[in-house]
Amino acid sequence: MLNLAQGNFGSSLILNQSVLSAVGERLPVTLSLAALSIAVTIPVGVFLGSLAAYYRQSWIDAGVMTFALLGVSIPAFWIAILGIILFSVHLGWVPSSGFTPISQGVGPWLSSVILPALILSLFQIGFLARMTRSAMLDVMGQDFIRTARAKGLSEWRTVSKHALRNALILIITATGILLSTAIGGSVVIEQVFALPGIGRMVVQAILARDYPLVQGTMLIFGFTFVLINLIVDVLYTLADPRVRHD
Amino acid sequence: MTDIGLEAIVSTAGLAPPRRGRSIRRLFRHRSFVIGFVIIVVLALAAIFAPLLTPLDPSAMKVRFRFRSPASDFIFGTDMFGRDIFTRVLYGARVSLFVGLAVSVISGFCGAVLGVVAAQFRKLDAPIMRLMDALMSFPAILLALGIAAALGPRVSSVIAALTVAYVPAGVRIVRAAALVVRELDYVQAARLSGASALRIIVRHILPNCFSPLLVHLTFIFAYAILAEAALSFLGVGVQPPLASWGNIIAEGRDYATEAWWVMLFPGIAISLAALGMNLLGDALRDVLDPRLKGGD
Question: Which distant-in-sequence residues (6+ apart) come within 8 Å of B138 by Cβ?
């Protein structure tokens, strides 16, 4: 415990380095992957979900929801292998494995993480679009939306200022969940794309029975998720003033 | 893959005990339910009657027939050991669907017990919920990965690992529902008329928690199938030669460019199973949750 308080998470048995430096070394990879996938997921997921809610019962709704359903049903590692075959082997657009740090140029970095990040996003977009749609449907049926329309606000203002704003709480909750699924999902995706990230390290540590490394990394993950939850709680109060008085 | 709770938490509002006959009739008029039901029934029958549908042994190796592409002899082709992929996918369905079923039933049971206990007994509420919060602070797949690795690679440890990972969301849902129900007038009336705590729980609280929990468990089934596949793919789940959809993909991965069929078909099977359960979950939520009635 004392060691822990001093920032010592122990040492790995297989890597010949401390847990903290092993994690630190691999952090940029996992962070790139998670950040890029979240950056794609949030706008696309919220947009698709709102679109489906606004045009509910239409072909747009059916199309978006079918896509979202497939997103949460198709295993990411499987679509990742298919993606590598199509985009790396046949089309040669992106490298099939490995990571290029951003310090060596944004282009090479992007091409090394774009495919894994997009595949990670498929599940997330599906999840977020489904959540956003049900949150928006809930809000769109409320009286104040009818009032907003009745007083002559444009549809755009009604939807963006009144409806989306009220659905924001659920969307922020979903985003907190997405951050943790992004990190959880990166464990599998890093393995498929041979990206030297934290997830891949954990899997190797588990298979090699390197318990200090597993334990230390899990502890660091634990701290990270507590932090994420804290940030989500703070965001609640920003998004919805009613929460502040609780 | 983590806090699946949320999708179903939305449905804790549907607390009114549904009239059973009407709900079932409404379910079968729901398009998602019918599609999902057909997919799951077909897959379950294929798993149960696997020996009747294929004359071959899932682990019989015939090197002579290595890497046959899908054709009339082997409709899904064969793998690097000459094993028939169609046969392996059928037998893999037994493992994958069993894991999904076991995880949702066991985590549902644990969730119901812990959730009701937390709601009914004030002293136990905080300890139980803080423990659940701690478990929930990890992504489910990561937690399951650690537990499965610690218990050793067996089907039972995969089930145990996924159950632990998915119980917290169930506990939250049941507790939330139970806290609402226990304040209702007729439950208070039962308490005042001298009904025992156990009787109140069994007769009044549990039945009212059933529909949100059922919706939740349907989604858990889908997540468990996906997670089992991921764990087996990573090598900590079901071990070869026993076939599971995840480890067939893992084995086929190295030959994916030449023998794409090895990994293609089990992937389709996983997707169909998860799709079917998600469709069932959506339909159950629509029908059992009166709050969303206007929505769809």
Answer: A180, A218, A221, A222, A225, B2, B165
Q: Is the CB of B142 less than 8 angstroms away from the CB of A130?
A: no
The phi and psi torsions of B120 (rounded to 5 degrees) equal: -90, -35
ipTM of the prediction:
0.83
Q: At CA B195, angle to CA B189 and CA B196, rounded to 5?
A: 135
The answer to whether B6 faces chain A, any CB pair under 8 Å, is yes
pLDDT 10s digit of each residue in chain A, 246 long? 556 656 666 777 777 778 788 888 888 888 888 889 988 998 899 889 888 988 888 898 888 989 998 988 999 889 988 888 888 777 877 777 777 777 777 777 777 788 889 999 998 999 999 888 888 888 877 778 878 877 877 777 777 777 777 778 777 877 778 887 888 888 888 888 888 888 888 888 888 888 888 888 888 888 888 888 788 888 877 777 776 654
Considering only CB atoms, B234 lies closest to which of A184, A203, A214, namely A203
A36 touching chain B per CB within 8 A: no
Judged by CB atoms closer than 8 Å, whether chains meet at B141 and A174 is answered as: no
| pLDDT tens readout for residues B148-176 | 888 888 888 899 999 999 999 899 889 88
Residue A91, chain B, CB below 8 Å: the answer is no
The pLDDT of residue A2 is 57
Let me know the angle formed at the C-alpha of B103 by B139 and B46, rounded to the nearest 5 degrees.
Answer: 120
- Residues from chain B that touch A229, judged by Cβ atoms under 8 A, are 137
In degrees, rounded to 5, the angle at the alpha carbon of residue B152 between the alpha carbons of residues B148 and B153 is 80
- Give, rounded to a whole angstrom, the gap between the first and last alpha carbons of chain A: 34
Cβ <8 Å between B274 and A70: no
Considering only CA atoms, which of A71, A74, A80 is closest in space to residue A117?
Answer: A80
> B215-232, pLDDT tens digit by residue?
899 999 999 999 999 988
Residue A188: list chain B partners with CB under 8 A: 141, 230, 233-234
Q: How far is CA A156 from the centre of its chain?
A: 27
C-alpha span between B224 and B204 (Å, rounded) = 30
Q: State which residue of chain A sits closest to B246, comparing Cα positions.
A: A78
**If we measure between CA atoms, which residue out of A164, A190, A162 comes closest to residue A31?**
A190
Residue in the structure block whose two tokens are 């959540």: A131
- Cβ atoms of A159 and A50 within 8 Å: the answer is yes
Residues of A in contact with B296 (CB under 8 A): 56-57, 137
Closest by CA to A11, choosing from A25, A26, A27, A22, is A22
Q: Do A229 and B137 touch (CB under 8 A)?
A: yes
Q: Give me the amino acid identity at B34.
A: V
